[in-house]
């Protein structure tokens, strides 16, 4: 039974991802969330048995909770964790200009979007190493591409910087994990109809009014196909949700 742990799983892309995974009776899914009592998680817990679905508390803003979540997951994953999907993230200053960036807030964005994933991966690596599949996934964004940056110079500046840092973290770490047979995947889930995604709707309406966001269901389905198809590589790629490859 393939095992998956998805962070930020109580809403948006994370919730859509675990919902789709649970539809396959062969999968065992762990939702890693800040609030295990959220209505979305309680609903899934009422629909699926404990031998198919589990919940661990994990907050990217609280590093000790990450280690505790890994300990809790280890108790229910004797054969290791096949897929670790680091999906959680924040964007606090979508409309900030370079002149108006709040540096203290930006430090928190970096801490959650870039630093916390380091702790997530290293705490769960022992479980990934034990598994059969061995895949580590970072949900990032095209907006973190250095090549793409000039085309969207004023779009979510601080979020883009944090994700660009995440991208280099993943690409460097991937070359190390490759030697252990661990596949690292970095992907852009698309512009998605989520709470975060809709905050940039007005920006895109001015720049490209023909561009429309995709549903969380489509994004989750596309993302999973990219994850399943991604090969073991030393020099990893930045994937779009469609499977296309973006420049770093």
TrEMBL record:
Task: List, alphabetically, the Gene3D superfamilies matched.
Answer: NAD(P)-binding Rossmann-like Domain
- Which Pfam families does this one have? adh_short
Q: Which InterPro entries match?
A: NAD(P)-bd_dom_sf, Sc_DH/Rdtase_CS, SDR_enzymes, SDR_fam
Keyword NADP: yes or no?
A: yes
Q: Which UniProt keywords apply?
A: NADP
Q: List, alphabetically, the PANTHER family matched.
A: CHAIN DEHYDROGENASE (ATSC), PUTATIVE-RELATED, SHORT-CHAIN DEHYDROGENASE/REDUCTASE SDR
Protein's name in the database: NAD(P)-binding protein
Give the originating organism. Answer: Rhodofomes roseus
């Amino acid at each position: 039974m393939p095992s998956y742990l998805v962070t930020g799983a109580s809403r948006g892309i994370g919730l859509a991802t675990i919902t789709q995974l649970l539809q396959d009776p062969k999968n065992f899914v762990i939702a890693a969330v800040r609030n295990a009592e959220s209505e979305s998680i309680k609903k899934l817990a009422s629909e699926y048995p404990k031998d198919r679905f589990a919940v661990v508390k994990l907050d990217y803003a609280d590093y000790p909770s990450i280690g505790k979540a890994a300990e809790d997951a280890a108790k229910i994953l004797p054969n290791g964790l096949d897929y670790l999907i680091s999906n959680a993230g924040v964007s606090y200053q979508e409309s900030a200009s370079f002149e108006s960036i709040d540096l203290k807030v930006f430090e928190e964005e970096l801490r959650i979007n870039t630093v916390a994933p380091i702790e997530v991966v290293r705490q769960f690596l022992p479980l990934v190493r034990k598994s059969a599949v061995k895949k580590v996934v970072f949900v990032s964004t095209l907006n973190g591409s250095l090549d793409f940056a000039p085309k969207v110079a004023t779009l979510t500046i601080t979020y883009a910087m944090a994700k660009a840092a995440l991208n280099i973290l993943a690409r460097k770490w991937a070359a190390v994990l490759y030697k252990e047979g661990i596949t690292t995947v970095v992907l852009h889930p698309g512009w998605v109809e989520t709470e975060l995604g809709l905050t940039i709707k007005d920006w895109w309406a001015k720049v490209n009014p023909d561009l429309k966001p995709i549903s969380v269901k489509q994004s989750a389905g596309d993302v999973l196909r990219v994850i399943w198809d991604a090969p073991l590589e030393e020099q990893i790629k930045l994937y779009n949700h469609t499977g296309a490859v973006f420049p770093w």
